[in-house]
Amino acid sequence: MAEHLLEVRNLSVEFHTAAGVVKAVRNISYHLDRGETLAILGESGSGKSVSSSAIMNLIDMPPGRISAGEILLDGVDLLTMPANQRREVNGRRIAMIFQDPLSHLNPVYTIGWQIREALTTHGTASAQARAEALRLLTRVGIPEPEHALGKYPHEFSGGQRQRVMIAMALALRPDLLIADEPTTALDVTVQAEVLALLEELQQETGMAVLIITHDLGVVAEIADRVVVMEKGELVEAGTVREVYRNPQHPYTRKLIAAAPGKGEMHEPAARTAPVLSVRDVRKRYGAFEALKGVSFDLMPGETMAVVGESGSGKSTLARILLRLDEPDAGSAHWKGRDLFTLSPGELYKLRRDLQMVFQDPTQSLNPRMTVYQLVSETWIIHPDILPKAKWRERVAELLVQVGLGPEHMGRYPHQFSGGQRQRIAIARALALEPQLIICDEAVSALDVSVQAQVIALLDKLRREMGIAFIFIAHDLPVVRDFADHVMVMRKGNVVEFGTVRAVFETPREDYTRALLAAGLDPDPDVQAAHRAARLQRAS
Amino acid sequence: MKRILVLGALMLGSALSPAFAGSGPIKIVLAEEADLLEPCMATRSNIGRVIMQNVSETLTELDVRGDKGVMPRLAEKWEQNADGSWRFHLRQGVKFSDGTTFDAKDVKHSFDRIMSDKNACESRRYFGGMTVTPTVVDDFTIDFKADPVQPILPLLLSLVTIVPEETPLEFVREPIGTGPYKLTNWTPGQQIVLTGREDYWGAKPEVTEATYLFRADPSVRAAMVQAGEADLSPSISQLDATNPATDFSYLDSETVYLRIDHNIEPLNDVRVRRALNLAIDRQAFLGTLVPDSALLATAIVPPPTLGWNPDVKVFPYDPDGARTLLEEAKADGVKVDTPITIIARSANFPNVTEIMEAIQAQLQEVGFKVELKFVEVAEHEQYYSKPFKEGRGPQIVAAMHDNSKGDPSFSMFFKYATEGTQSGFSDPKVDDLIKRASAAVGDERAKLWSEVIAYVHDEVVADVLLFHMVGFSRVSERLDFKPTMATNGTLQLSEIKIK
Amino acid sequence: MTLQTTDTALAEEPHFARRMVRMLLADRFALCAAIFLLVILVLAIVGPSWLGDLATKQNLRGRNAAPFDWERGWVWWMGADALGRPLLARIIVATQNTLMVAAGAVALSAVVGTVLGLVAGFSSARVNQIIMRLADVIMSFPSLLIAVIVLYILGSSILNLMLVLAITRIPVYLRTTRAEVLEIRERMFVQAARVMGASSKRILFRHILPVVLPTLTTLATLDFAYVMLAESALSFLGIGIQPPEITWGLMISQGRQYLTNAWWLSFWPGLAIILTTLSLNLLSNWLRIALDPVQRWRLEMKGRKNG
Amino acid sequence: MIPPPDSPEGAMLRFIRKRAVASLISLVGLIVMVFFLSRLTGDPAALFLPVEASAEMKAQFRELHGLNDPLLVQFARYVGDVVTGDFGESLRKARPALDVVLEAFTWTLWLALVTMTLVTGAAIVVGSLAAFRAGGFFDRLSSVISLLGASVPDFWVAIVAIVVFSVNLAWLPTSGTGSLLHWILPISVLFIRPFGIIVQVVRGSMIGALSSAYVKTARAKGVKSGPIIFVHALRNAMLPVITVIGDQAASLLNGAVIIETIFGFPGVGKLMIDSILQRDFNVVLAAILVTALAIFLMNLLIDLAYALLDPRIRH
């Protein structure tokens, strides 16, 4: 058998933590050949990034420890290599790009400097490095590359930063590129562009790509083969199509089933008297116009999705509706009263009706309060809702309602998983018995399988309790199964508004169409078709 | 009565036989920087130590090494006129360091300047309660008329530094004087340099140049002389004075005492005051917290002073006697249990805290209730000087008094007369005695002062006199110099010999 | 790298106090520091009534007795001071005043500074400006000069000393707290509390303060050392605690003049200050790790190994 | 949602102006406070004149220096004079107070500058190396040394240093100014405490920076340890360090009273304490003004240093 470019054999890594020794990966093996793309698919906590860190020698020891296995690059074990040789491999033979390029680029040096460093570290003369950096930036499609070399990471958009990372990684034409969730925080349209760039470059250089992702769509778009990981173990491996069409492991099946955007769409009832009526809301931050006149109506008990990419003003809208920010102009009538003109006292009463669930439950729950304290705090603030004697009982009820148990009452947020934390946040919102809950990217930070569960929970609450939702998301498939109406926003304007079916099946606006097209489908065949169509449009 | 003091220059001249003496520059390290070099402030010790008699000279000078009393300096001789005024015959051929010639007009101006209200000259204080009018007789003769008549006017004029006629009334920064040195460098905070004058009227001193340095910490000063960075430190700590070859002690004219406020019960009772005196074991302090060579005080002025009374005896250490006295007083209804506050000034003199703590302990031993309070200089002054605060409790102020002038008049009125600013009592007999003594001359004067000292100590029991302090100096072995009682306020470079 | 253990960390953690004790046992330096401080604390409480008389009994003839004279009672092991009082006894008696001044000053400045910082960080721009300018004024006012002026006006007593030292340290807490509040108030859980209708007071004291507290605790332990040294510096200048009250700082400055011929007078109290501040520093370093969930494993790992 | 940046220079000027106004307010507050507080501490006449001075002499002294007027009149007069650049005369020294202060401040400035430069350099190297192998032997050693440094009374060290290095070994002059050698002891003693504190801060900040994502990127690029510590991590870790350096420098600029006293160093700290001791109010006020102004300028420099180190702040 021909030697693989990279072969991971029986790798086990463990970490010392507060909860004892955690075996992050257990006895995993996979391989990769030149020109090939392998995806490692897994959710948070699956250990999918650990093996790549081991390859790059990025595991801090302690607390980490590689307890067994070998990593062969062209047949040579990286783990037993002397330190200076090992360092030479990084950047020259294997390069890596990361999720969140903003924090992975050094904020205090220009990108030109950082790209040049990648070259000079491995012996390129500095004059040559300068020319090469310019060539690379041009290649990855940064506008005005000459000028861009002197700029700092924070002066670029998210997509451009990832392009810079790619330029830096590919500076020495490595044999292998490891991409750890390279598109996760990016807007869908940008994600498509970055993935396309990676593919192009792979074809140019013939390098192997190891892509680590939680997103089936990404796998379908770019990978040749996929390995699936769960809780530190490799549960399934095969070609992308094989795995999607014919998953063997129950976990893989669950993962595929959880992918959003395949259920029945809602058919909203006829529009009656709106419970919330928003007219011409405007907001500027200095010279930046965040909202340029937004108007809409929300019916009682209905779910309205607000979709848009970063900078569209969707989060500003949420904050203004809850008076976390003050609008510059406009009105928002809630049951006939303008939210924007309420006195603090009136606003305090109204808080009961309007609640919010935030994007990141890790941050929206006070880390120093127990679940009981978190939920019951609402009744301390609004003492007339419930007598203190009944608090414990009611907290238990609410926890059951959101799918947790009464026994969780005494624990702290950090003892829960992301999905569980979001359930706590929802329980807290429910404690006030609100009539409208605004969810700001409430499921974006969650794993796909958890996302589906939380959305199902919200939908159940809407049905059972008649709560209206404004559901803010950057991702269209997520809202497809859940929303009654969809409002698409772009740069502070409402681009399109309609029923979910109208928006998904007969989008009127180019922008909406572009958003839909850029979304990645978990089905490799569907995605291949999308791609073909896209390429055709491009040419 | 006319009294004529005629002292020729021959005495000064005879001292000048520099046969084997070396000469050269020296460095002197002082504790406190001279913030001014104003001649009329030379009576303040930190200033006087630098310029008095070195840069600025006076008409007369007190002999602190021998017992010659008041000696001539810029005045060659003086006599009292029939009307009680004094006539001074000035030395001729004396030049100021700016080249101008010294004459009687300069003397008059110097005196007028001190008395002017355009400045805050400190020397003025010695002329309080009298009117002194200088009159120029001719270029080298000047009369001083005082009302009331001042028998010690020649002594008082040893405190008046002479500046040229042109000197403005406001403070100057460049002292011009007739002395053997002139100021050649003054870098505030760092050093002052005096350089010998070629055209000095008198004998040329061996020290050609003196650099003054300032260090607040006594052990640093001692270390500097030891390390050769300085040749002389007039004051070092007793603890550092361990090398007999370089370290000398000297009686430094400071007297430590406890001023008693007689106005407040129980301190208004003489038995209580006597008990205070008997309760303190003065002898135990010597060689421990107070240098061995310090003297136990029986007067507010040190022994070489006129009228110092050898017959007055130090109170014995008699705790039992003290207890008995206290009980007697108590039996008579004196509230001896009232807590008495001793107010002392932090860093007033070496070991002040320890000494006061020890005194407190000794007083408590015999049954006094004593509290100790340390305050800083400004607050101390409020307790020490009149007007005293209304509604105060019984208070004792620990203080240190300096009189190196040889005459008790610089002390007695202030400390013991009814009108005295630091006097804690009022006794008509004391007032009368002080008045008479101040006006008297000669043996009569000495006798009267002796009487005051004895009466205040034995009858009034005015205060608790403790120690005449000694200072310690470190003198480099290349110098030949013995500090004197006056060293606190005057450090004449001409007295320093180089081996 | 971050550990992705969010899902596996569900395991019940032991009770807070037990966990702290276990972590303390894991760090030998911190443990020694804690024991030392405990001893100091006990001495501070019982010292004056236990050894008060012995520590003030003078004996001029036995002054500056040298240390390590094992023949005499244990209180004489460190020698005697300039009035012949046993140094060890005096150090023990002085513990109370020393700790009282330091703890009082630290507590006062921490409370006032923190409250002002919370208010500054959370109120209108105008209030913020006023408070910050006040802090600037104190900051640019040399601390020894404030101390001298205030002590001159108010007189030197333990209480005033505490006050003075507290005033000079207020800006430290104020600025730290304000900076943290400005950051924390933008956090999601604060927004969440506002959405619930929580009052500013509630947000400040229930939500923000607990998050700032560990930083402040660390700061306060470090400041403790600073204040003790500042107190001794004031004594050096002659405006600190006045005898017959004693503190370590005063003992050092009184013994300073004997440094060349009776070094023990200032050495032992100096050592007491050094050991105490060192212990506080060690403990605060430990505390910083123990309270930081990201760093905590270092101690817990060791704890398991040792235990 | 960052507003589009206008020119960085314009922003910088606006920032400086804003800071200047804020500092002016503080400065005025400071002057008001010092003026009235210092006058509460007592009468300069009692201190300038000997205890035996008569009441008339004291009254005349007060009259001469305008101390008899109501406080508010004195204050108005003072403010009027200061506005025209006249900071009054020193009572004690009979010279313009500002001259006295500037003379002393020059020494303090140099002392602070040299000390802080040395401290910063040494603390950065030691702190960074300690952070790189956190928990290792060097880390332990440096933390014990720095903790010790932060907890030793400085006058104690100063006197022992003089006894050892000047008297016994005779390597260095005991005190004073003059040659470069004279600077060694005071600087060494002043060095200790800020060094102890800054090493700790550098270490803490570096541990954070070394575990950051961009260091991971650098390691993935194959960058060596040296550049990772001193090029990648250090510049990022410097922000909190600079703040602490600023605080420490500020306290040095305010004068190292004790060190100045012991070493006979003619700095502004001792001047301030001496002046308040002597109730020489004009000098106290001028000294406070000068040091506060210096501290303001230094804070401005620190803000500029921030901007220099971190491009994100430039906008």
UniProtKB/TrEMBL annotation, chain A:
Please give one Pfam family short name. ABC_tran
Subcellular location field = Cell inner membrane
Which PROSITE patterns does this entry report, sorted A to Z?
Answer: ABC_TRANSPORTER_1, ABC_TRANSPORTER_2
Chief localization? membrane
The record's GO molecular-function terms, alphabetically, read: ATP binding
**Looking at the record's lineage, which domain of life comes first?**
Bacteria
Q: Which family, according to the similarity comment? A: Belongs to the ABC transporter superfamily.
Protein name as annotated: ABC transporter ATP-binding protein
Tell me what organism the protein belongs to. Shinella yambaruensis
From TrEMBL, chain C:
| Membrane topology, record value | Multi-pass membrane protein
Would the keyword Membrane turn up in this protein's UniProt record?
yes
User: Is this entry keyworded Cell membrane?
Assistant: yes
- Give compartment(s): Cell membrane
Parts of the chain that traverse the membrane: 29-51, 74-93, 100-124, 144-168, 208-229, 262-283
Every ABC transmembrane type-1 domain range? 95-284
Q: What is its main location?
A: membrane
- In which family does this protein belong, per the annotation? Belongs to the binding-protein-dependent transport system permease family.
Q: What is this protein called?
A: ABC transporter permease
The source organism is: Shinella yambaruensis
Q: What high-level taxonomic lineage is stated for the organism?
A: Bacteria, Pseudomonadati, Pseudomonadota, Alphaproteobacteria, Hyphomicrobiales
UniProtKB/TrEMBL annotation, chain D:
The alphabetical list of record keywords is: Cell membrane, Membrane, Transmembrane, Transmembrane helix, Transport
An example Pfam family from this entry, by short name, is: BPD_transp_1_N
Fetch the InterPro entries from UniProt: BPD_transp_1_N, MetI-like, MetI-like_sf
Positions of the ABC transmembrane type-1 domain:
105-302
- Listed transmembrane segments: 20-40, 107-132, 144-171, 183-202, 237-263, 283-309
Record's subcellular location: Cell membrane
Q: Which Gene3D superfamilies match?
A: MetI-like
- Keyword Transport (UniProt): yes
Q: Report if keyword Secreted is assigned.
A: no
Superkingdom to which the source organism belongs: Bacteria
Identify its protein family. Answer: Belongs to the binding-protein-dependent transport system permease family.
Q: Report the protein name in the record.
A: Peptide ABC transporter permease
Give the organism, scientific name: Shinella yambaruensis
